[in-house]
Amino acid sequence: MVLHALARRRMEVNLNTRKQVNNTDDWDRLFQELRVYYRHSAVGRRTTGIIHHFNTPLQAILMQSELMVRKLQEEENTFAPRLSPELKAEWQKFFDYRRKKNRQLQEELAQLQRLVHLIRYQSFHEDDQGVQNIDLNELVREELAAYQTEWFFKYRVEKHLQWRDRLPPISGFYIDFSQSFRNIVDNALEALSSVDKPSLTIETRLDANRRIIAVGDNGPGLAPEIRDILFTPFVTTKGNPEKPRAGLGLFMAQRLLSPYGGVITVKSRPGETWFLLSLP
User: Which residue ranges does the record assign to the Histidine kinase domain (predicted)?
Assistant: First the structure.
């Protein structure tokens, strides 16, 4: 359902910018990307249904794992003292191995439960058609947690996070803010893909009574000629026939935040780029 909402919002923006499409290549890239999003939307609807039923078997497996912990404790207290020193040494190795593996299983199950909760949380909020009071700190944390499923973000990218305590909530549609933030982070991660030691910085702060979400990376930076047209639809430096890009991500982010008085600014030089999302 999250992907379905995303596809719907993307189509709304695309229809609003139809007059700005001025050549066949733009339309081709646009339709290729929309095909991908609608395909993902169909898969997303099925996946969301599965996720809603995922927690019950996870709970059952976790209960069996906790039962194993108790059984291992009983074994250590009642069975081990009756063993000879020679047998006890062999038993201890096997016992330690089983306890270690069961602990690893519990950690993986806990991670799966967190992911299930996250997907259900995002699905609920992004499909909600009503206006909400949104905690931007919490939104950013939840979005970054979702990126933990991506190998590059989880293992390669050095992350620096700083939150402004008690950031005032903002009223609006959750998906407008979550999608805008994701578009900016996606852009930063793509820039970092060619960096030996990728680093991503996320900050929230309050500046002159405006809420600020700052996204910084140590990628190669933006060329001046690109920086001037960065928020123009159908401008992209990425994409290939296998992964078509319509060049709408940053334009959409700006367009989604505009009704709230939101502004996105960019500062870039070789080795350092900052996107600042500013909201009243």
Answer: 49-280
